[in-house]
Amino acid sequence: MMIRQEKPSEFREIYDLVKVAFQTAKVSNGNEQNYVNQLRASGNYIPELAIVAEEDAKLVGHIMLTKTYVEMVDAKFEGLLIAPLCVALEYRKRGIGSKLVNESFRLAKHMGYKAIFVVGSPEYYGRFGFKSSVLFGVKHVPPIPDPYVMAYELSTAALSGVAGTVTFT
Questions:
Q1: Per-residue model confidence (pLDDT) at position 28
Q2: Residue range 4-52, pLDDT digits in tens
Q3: First-to-last CA distance in the chain?
Q4: Global pTM?
Q5: Which CATH code, of 3.90.550.10, 2.30.130.10, 1.10.579.10, 3.40.630.30, is assigned to 2-166?
Q6: For 46-159, where are the alpha helices, taking DSSP H only?
Q7: What span, in angstroms and rounded, lies between the C-alpha atoms of 108 and 103?
Q8: List of residues 6+ apart from 95 with CB closer than 8 A
Q9: DSSP H helices in 5-132
Q10: Which listed residue, 24, 85, 123, 154, has the most CB atoms within 10 A of its CB?
């Protein structure tokens, strides 16, 4: 298996991968594939942080980190958003999702980013060190139940003094 940056020529295949993968996800709004396109079209897209897992010339997983901002009283904190992470059903339970997450962390840290946010399963993302963002003073707008909005510090105390609201659009 190879983990690498996505290519524009693969956007349609990634769209289909995300759509089908989320049809069998525990939680889905059915729009994740369109959200990927929306994030790519935004000014927050970072091509180096949109990566795929490929096995036998087939895309089997995808993760994308885009810029997001915590709006504070007098400042903005730039972080990253994981949205979405997916693995094709027949390739799950093989560590592919973990490899995508860990590689995205490595790349983001190398690029100088300090923190990552995600909306997802506390059981899944907790094993990577994500904690409820409210523990760092960060709330999501519009409200999403606190346990599902999480943050991870890529460097020690990266979110120290960061308190405010974040919106994932």
A1: 67
A2: 999 999 999 999 999 999 988 776 677 899 999 999 999 999 999 999 9
A3: 31
A4: 0.93
A5: 3.40.630.30
A6: 96-110, 122-126
A7: 8
A8: none
A9: 11-23, 32-41, 96-110, 122-126
A10: 85
